[in-house]
Specification:
heterodimer, A: 279 residues, mainly alpha, MetI-like fold, 3% strand, globular, B: 278 residues, 2 domains, 14 helices, 76% helix, 0% strand
Amino acid sequence: MLMAPALLAMAAIVFYPVISTLLSSFFEMNKMGDWVRFVGLGNFSSLFADKTFWVVLARSVFWTVVAVALKTLAGLGLGILLNQDYRGRGIIRTLIVIPWAAPVPIAAMIWMWTFNSQFGLLNHFLKQMGITSRPPAWLANPTTAFWANLTVDVWLGIPFMALAFLAGLQAISHEYYEAAEIDGANSLQRFSYITLPFLRPVILVATLLSVMWTFNDFNVIYIITKGGPMNTTDILVTYLYKTAFLFLDFSHASVMAFITFIVLLVFSLAYARLYFKEG
Amino acid sequence: MGSIRKTGQAVAFYGISAVSLFLLLFPFFVMLSTSLKQVGEVYSTPPTWIPKVVYWKNYIEIWQQYPIGRYISNSFFIAVTCTILNGLLAVPAAYAVSRLRFAGRKMFMYMFLVVQMFSPVIIIMPLFKLMAVWGLLDTYQSLIITNTVFTLSFSIWMLSSYFNNVPVDIEQAALIDGCSRVQTITKILIPIAAPGIVTTAIYTFISVWNEFMFALTFISRAEMRPLTVGLYNFIRLWTINWHHLMTGAVIGIVPIVILFMIAERNLVKGLAAGAVKS
């Protein structure tokens, strides 16, 4: 059986840990991560009684919705731009890939330095352009730190969106536009009656992928703010990781992993269905 | 009229392009600029856009003052090993999914697609315990095993879609001529699907090179760190030497960006294939 080695490896390193995590959420665990005793839904109810958890969960949803919306819009704009016929767009297409191509952890460290309130070039730029004379210390207070993280996440996600939309746009035949132009459709009408309907499947797939990547964006937040100051920039995955490996509370971390698993499962099943239906 | 409209359009295109490029490449400019500054200039206010004195020595100092060479060779060794193992496991599996009609084939395709989306955070706790039990914490093996398997479902899935595009007829002819199944894979399918296999291999290499969370969790000894975690450790120091960190960033980013650009066009197609009909 040709698939046996791959399946065995996945069983040990993916499926067994998933099941183990799911089961763990019903056990009280010690600081070594061993099961102490079965507590049923006890871990769930104590986690749900913790206010921080709900704040983090709500922030994860907000984070995902806002970031995906911004990436989709910016990506759509950029995709349409690159679909126009002008000199040099080939070079631009190549260059915009770089944020996606660069290793995320390293890119996050560069951003951290860019956000530096005293020596960072971002604040220097804002002052020079006259946008503000007293730019914030981005990473020192909760609100600006959240938006700083979000900026980085959006920045990372734009190239994929733009390229996916560009591929979708290039697949639309010119004849539709020519026919519409002859019939007197203006550019807004052409966009909403030709471009959007044809792009719909790409938009669906790309946003679904983006939702999963954004919801999972551990690296950016963990590196730039580590969820701080005081958990105010944590999303579910970073809070989960800290609960496990910094606070050594494996029971509650497992419950959060359980919830993350369900969320991702729902979205990835939707993605799989779309993929097989369209393809 | 027409030419004025055209000129206006061109100005708009180039204007928007320039702004987009500026926003998307800004941090890389910061990285390059800082990596060429002397310490004094790095910590001066107001900061400078372009180094007053271009200081190449950062690129020498980083090798002398930090185990950056060790980090890079760790990353390289782990990523290459994972890529090879990944290929050995994924090619036969992708062949099975693509060529053999067996019960549950569709279910496996579904499974690979879903698993590809899993977050490592979900499984990190049991994996940490497994590695501890196997005595693999602080070893290359811990990262090689997890990364190989974690990139596997994506590879199988990419490869099988490449294999699907190779006509079956040639293989059937070879089978009739007396080739074994293994021979049809190694002598016919692999050479024809080589571009797809290379793309998949590059992508695996990059994913492993970029990996952060497994390494952060399994590795605590400095000399075992891959580059991502090695550089991250600069931030944990009391005083951060940003000029050296940015120099390390250049070294860590440039080869990966070049590799990525080679594979990227096929990658977008793979990820959104179902939705883009050409």
